Amino acid sequence: MSFLSEDEVSRLAGPGVGPHPRPWPAGDDRLDPELLAGGDHRNVADRYRYWTMAAIVEDLNRTRNPLRIAIQNWAHDFNIGSMVRTANAFNVAGVHVIGRRRWNRRGAMVTDRYLSVEHHPDVASFATAMDSLGYAVVGVDNLPGAVALESCRLPEQVCLVFGSEGPGLTDELVSVCERLVAITQYGSTRSINAGAAAAIAMYHWARDWLPGPTAT
């Protein structure tokens, strides 16, 4: 399965910035000489323009948020890439892919290189990993027994779990969840797109646990 290269992402991400005016900043080893010379058209926040990827990851690691995201990968779901991209936007502690190791990276727009994506071959190994980290596991799906997401305060150290588009969470994964939450809907559709649901749930968590927005 092919996915976007960083050059392709650069073309899709917009104009970015051109070559840095000379003289170049001195004494800052975070800066990439090739980007300074050729311009930076990557899909990164303005504060990271001209930085090397390693420098960006190191900076993100200093401020990782305790939220984690897990996704069941039974159907090679394109939404996984979208979820990873959103997880990067919220600078989560990690993304966990349960089931198949391979997933469609096109929707991630290279953001998987800036965070930890861990693979778990089955639900049992995922549950063991979360237990060892001291994380609550909360499933996000409109299943019987789920409470309205907007009515509850999620734990700070939580792993939000999402199923594949269509089938949703399996019974096995539901059994390891501390609780289930669902996004209230007001129209005729049975469910919200999995990538959209993940974005809503991450934002809901952030409203409780993160400070207000900062300029980028």
From TrEMBL:
Which portions of the sequence form the region Disordered? 1-32
List GO BP terms, alphabetically.
methylation
Boundaries of every tRNA/rRNA methyltransferase SpoU type domain copy: 67-203
Write one Gene Ontology MF term: methyltransferase activity
Q: Which UniProt keywords apply?
A: Methyltransferase, Transferase
InterPro entries in the record: Alpha/beta_knot_MTases, rRNA_Methyltransferase, SpoU_MeTrfase, tRNA_m1G_MTases_N
- What's the name of the protein? rRNA methyltransferase
Q: Which organism is it from?
A: Microlunatus ginsengisoli
